[in-house]
Specification:
By secondary structure, the chain is an alpha+beta fold. The longest helix has 19 residues. Helix 1 packs across helix 4 and helix 4 runs antiparallel to helix 5. The chain contains five helices and six strands; from the N terminus they run βαβααβααβββ.
Length: 153
Amino acid sequence: MSSIVITGNDLTLEQLALICRENAKIELAEEAKQNIIDSRKVVDDLVAEEKVVYGITTGFGKFSDVVISQEQCKELQRNLIITHAVGAGDPFPIDVARGVMLLRINNLVKGFSGIRLETVETMVNMLNKGVTAFRVLLEHLETWHHYHIWFFL
């Protein structure tokens, strides 16, 4: 079976089932890769130019008026992951967890997030190698729709 090409625009339910239940391989379309690269360049430029942009060069919530220096950006991202890496409940079934990973990849390739291409490629490689995210059914309710913190089996 050849790989299913992820464009961010045309994933079908049949493809979703093949990937999640039959472990079909995926690859990113070249246009999708370019979307990610272009989006990341916007983020990198904002940081380099020291522009004030919520959540990129500032803190979050009540810390939105705190400007984060270029040197502090990595620490901000690390702290964001650590503070949101919480959940309780039973784990999703593997096919559901794979589906969440796939749908996240499908969304990220549209190029609106500013994520690094290497991060999305890591997610693709994980799916292709059968490394599945450990997701719990109940997560931190305030942020579950914003942050997908995964622990890998």
